[in-house]
Amino acid sequence: MTKKIIATPNGVQEVELTAEEETQRQADIENDNARATAEAEAKEANDALKASAKAKLIAGEALTEDEANTIVL
């Protein structure tokens, strides 16, 4: 058992974790980081698509289907 200080919605707590709990906690942290990275990359790609659609509209060029789908009226 190891003691860890963990930030929770209810404040900071000191808890004892078994090796299995520590392994699971580490896996949860890695999964959360991977999900956050994927969400940031998806937002970045969507922003780039919107910028491309805007540039094409200004230039009077045809939009791709994905670009047209980003336009909200």
Folded structure, characterized:
With 73 residues, this protein is an alpha+beta fold. It has one domain (2-70). The protein contains two helices and two strands, in the order ββαα. It has helices at 19-59, 65-70, and strands at 2-8, 11-17. The chain has a two-stranded antiparallel sheet. The radius of gyration is 22 Å and the shape is rod-shaped.
Number of strands: 2
End-to-end CA span: 57 Å
**Strand residue content:** 15-25%
Average pLDDT over all residues = 88
Profile the largest sheet.
Answer: 2 strands, antiparallel
Structural class label:
alpha+beta
Specify the oligomeric state.
single chain
Given the structure, what is the number of helices?
2
- Tertiary shape: rod-shaped
Across the major sheet, the strand order is: 1-2
**Rg, Å, rounded:** 22 Å
Low-confidence stretches: none
The percentage helix is 55-70%
Q: Give the tally of structural domains.
A: 1
What is the succession of H and E elements? EEHH
Task: Summarize this structure as a short list of keywords or feature phrases.
single chain, 73 residues, alpha+beta, two-stranded antiparallel sheet, 2 helices, 64% helix, 19% strand, rod-shaped
Summarize it.
This protein is of the alpha+beta class. It has helices at 19-59, 65-70, and strands spanning 2-8, 11-17. The chain is rod-shaped, with a radius of gyration of 22 Å.
